[in-house]
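User: Show me an example of a complex going from sequences to structure tokens.

Assistant: Sure. Here are the input components:
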Amino acid sequence: MTTPTVLKPRSGRAVGDRLARSARAGEGIGMPSEQVPAWLEARRRAVGAQVRRIPFAELDQWSFEPGSSNLRHHSGRFFTVEGLDVRGPQSSWQQPIIVQPEIGILGILAKEFDGVLHFLMQAKMEPGNPNLVQLSPTVQATRSNYTKAHGGTNVRYLEHFLQAGPHQVITDVLQSEHGSWFYRKRNRNLIVEVSGDVPLLGEDFGWFTLGQLKALLQQDNVVNMDARTVLASAPLGVDGQQALSSDTEVMSWFTGERSRLTLDAHLRPLDGIEGWLRDSHSIHRGDHRFFRVVAVAVEGAGREVAGWSQPLIEPVAPGVVGFAWRSFGGVGHVLVNARAEGGFLDTAELGPTVQCVPANYTRLPASERPRFLDLFENPDAGRIRYSAMHSEEGGRFLNAESRYLIVETDESSTPAQAPPGYRWVTPAQLSLLAGHSRYVNVQARSLLSVLR
Amino acid sequence: MTTPTVLKPRSGRAVGDRLARSARAGEGIGMPSEQVPAWLEARRRAVGAQVRRIPFAELDQWSFEPGSSNLRHHSGRFFTVEGLDVRGPQSSWQQPIIVQPEIGILGILAKEFDGVLHFLMQAKMEPGNPNLVQLSPTVQATRSNYTKAHGGTNVRYLEHFLQAGPHQVITDVLQSEHGSWFYRKRNRNLIVEVSGDVPLLGEDFGWFTLGQLKALLQQDNVVNMDARTVLASAPLGVDGQQALSSDTEVMSWFTGERSRLTLDAHLRPLDGIEGWLRDSHSIHRGDHRFFRVVAVAVEGAGREVAGWSQPLIEPVAPGVVGFAWRSFGGVGHVLVNARAEGGFLDTAELGPTVQCVPANYTRLPASERPRFLDLFENPDAGRIRYSAMHSEEGGRFLNAESRYLIVETDESSTPAQAPPGYRWVTPAQLSLLAGHSRYVNVQARSLLSVLR
């Protein structure tokens, strides 16, 4: 007895075309885009959470482990804050880092209404978000979440991402997160299309077209980091077939950069890492650069549990994340930078042209400032193709805001023949790489989400 | 002043078509294929090397480090043999493992003669090869090699792979090696096409078409592992556009497997790893399964240095590496297995249907034998699509021979709906994944090199 065999096309224009159609749909079957800010505000009020800074001693269920001083939850789950020792060719340093080995799920449910793909987004509260509630993926869950480590409620819609079913996967890829703050973290970025009925399981969910999400990405602090990275992982609707470098040349350049850039990073006890001090409320550098580890209590929230406290990482000042953009022969390109970050599993990934917190460099000589930073500090209005404030994952980072920019530059500031460590690629090339693990870092993926 | 901009196609059929043309060329401008065995034999005599097993105490420049008992070279270079502690959901174990953090270069130079791509191969002696001399890439060099850690001679042709030049890169990707024997090893697999004159720098080099290399891959122990993995990394000349699963479905399945399969592996001192014993001549398991660490002296060789001694890993018996092959709707598919191996950087990669040393299981109940192994032990001659003995890297492994097989199977033994952990993919799909790091393991890449 032979199972009848049905072959299918390995890939098709179909999904890309359908994503492009959704991107052209300025409104959908759900809430109009202009009502989203009021909805998020209403959700903020409904959640009614207060986030209050507390001393480490007031953390509930979290403590510094005797011996290592690593900060951990009594259950051994969620994450730990440990020490990292990084040795590189140019510099070596130690720092605190979040260790969270389990793979979380960032999943967006998609469904066609009136022939247009819509995406189910959640208005979700995260304690580190400057405005608490932002548009998030349908599901944003660590394994601890959905195996109920905090005795919480079920994660709504999770079953669509865990079980095989009559689904069509649009994207499914393990992506890295912040290599400066997370040790080898990765999340599964998923978009799954369903054909059956999907009821709205609460007032915190709504369906949006890609066109609506694109418009919302123009606003400050509306679309959260998890939503941005999942959207960036989806195939680009339009893919140009011409570029300054062939795909093989880009790959070969990246392989060379990954071979060349070496950082030797090892976990060590948080206790006594060089250059860092701990007081009652924070772990910070003696010179107050980079970031600090702090603790917050979340009160009165209607989230998975009634209230909780946890550590967060808080950068010392807002960041700048920017792509230089140029048109070559009528085709838009962005300038990527191969970056080694201490927490990356495989040393280097492609980041934006600039990714830094400028305040960290104010007291240093100009020669030590990040290359190309000046292009993003006071760009001419006419050269700004994109500008919005976004924050990083509010479950781990407190007020980690950056200005995300795409700025048109020219041959004098950013030559076509890019300097070592940099390369011009098209959004289509970046999107192709973002379909695989560990090529495009989370900041570059955020910018890629607005390039489609 | 603006640099004139020349856009190029991101990818083209050109390289694939030219590789396919070379694959159809049964002979080339160099040595006829039938003369290769005699040439390798002549090179074997010319090199005149003897490989002799020695006790560890006779190793020159290598010793067991006080404290850890890790086996290392006095220079601190080349590689070390350390201990690995592996904890998995089904089983946990400890083992010796080779640690070699530096990224080596496996490079094949390509050049067109009479409109057909030829590849520059070297008849290279490696002490662990059962027949010492095999066809190798143009360059096969660790960083220690080419920075002359053993005070050796220059690596011929290396400059083509280190310097940018008027070259066309055909493939350039970091690939993993044996996850059971190497800790997070990767090599840069390169094929670089040159247009200028390339003199033959010795009697150990020759130009071959892909068709010749395909024919030589049918013979036992002629094409070495490094050559096989580089050839497997090149784009497949012919790519079918139909398959049982779409590329996105294959990716999603693999992402799920990589999320599901977890192995926690940590280096530890070689001293006192559980289940292993050290005597004067070897480090081996008490039950003599899997492999042993041994030492050899290489004498009278005309290689980079006149003679040397080194440790090698020696499997206890020959292995079996096999793909089940089926045609679905007229399109050939192979059955890949998502495998976690202790030394992989990212937990899991796609391996062949079967990859094991059967002797390790002879004393175990049938239920503990590797799945599908019986299909490869005595297959009907009519079902064998490929069969040859190949050995693994002779610079690290002693007599590590396996029978490489591709066997046609049917619905009763290998259903179209593959069991968990397995999936049918086309050679074109496997080739696409082999163009990126850490998807296809080295054994599956060896088989992919014969599937083109």
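The lines above are the inputs; the final block is the predicted structure for all two components together. Chain A has a mean pLDDT of 93.
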